[in-house]
Amino acid sequence: MQYDFDKNAVIQKASQDKKDALHTLTNKIFIIGLLVLFALAIFIFGRYKIIDYQKEIIQIEKDRSDNLLLNILPVQIAKKLKEDGKAEARNYEMVTVMFTDFKDFTRIAEQLSPSQLVEEIHTCFSAFDNIIHKHQIEKIKTIGDAYMCAGGLPLKNQTHAEDVVKAALEIREFMKEHNKKKIANGQPQFEIRIGVNSGPVVAGIVGVKKFAYDIWGDTVNLASRMESHGVVGEVNISGTTFELIKEKFPCAYRGKVEAKNKGEVDMYFVN
Q1: pLDDT per residue as tens digits for the range 124-157
Q2: What's the CA gap between 109 and 100, in Å, rounded?
Q3: Which helix H or strand E contains 240, and what residues bound it?
């Protein structure tokens, strides 16, 4: 009986040890499984964060690229260029073009260091940019000390002549105040001429490198002519522009100028 009892005890103990070992193994497998799942979750979360971060970086770069493009081209033209890869030239029946230029720029530039010259041009053109932006006028380009802009494009409107003349008068006033400061500091001043003309133009982008929005036509040439035949501190407009703004701005007739392909053209000062 004692033998049978001891034998059963040994069998029961072996069975219990086996169950305990199986339970321990099960627990270890369960814990290992949890650790694997936890590690996998961390990996997936990390990958998600990396992908999310990469998407954020891509979006930031895309926004930066879009903003740069919009700073170079009008919104409508930039959108067309992104969608179609090109933007066809467009005819405008009536816009108003303005040119500004500094008298004796080369002579005055010789009195300034390169950095002083660049700073002065930057100050003036930045002010011009802010003024025309306020009046919804499109900057076309700068050529040396010449500044060119146009109203009535790329979105057509009926107030382009009035908008451009208002901007021209504000630019004139800015230069008067700016030059007062230059004189007070004993520095050379830039005296500005402003010319304005209205008429049809063709506008668009040409070439495949360094895209630039530009306008062409006799209207542009005559606007430049109004500037070159203007007087320092005056806004010189053509007869065409005068007819569009005469009810809103007092003007003084100042004679005619010979213009290529146009014959003699009337000129007016805006008071």
Answers
A1: 999 999 999 999 999 999 998 999 999 999 889 9
A2: 17
A3: helix 239-245
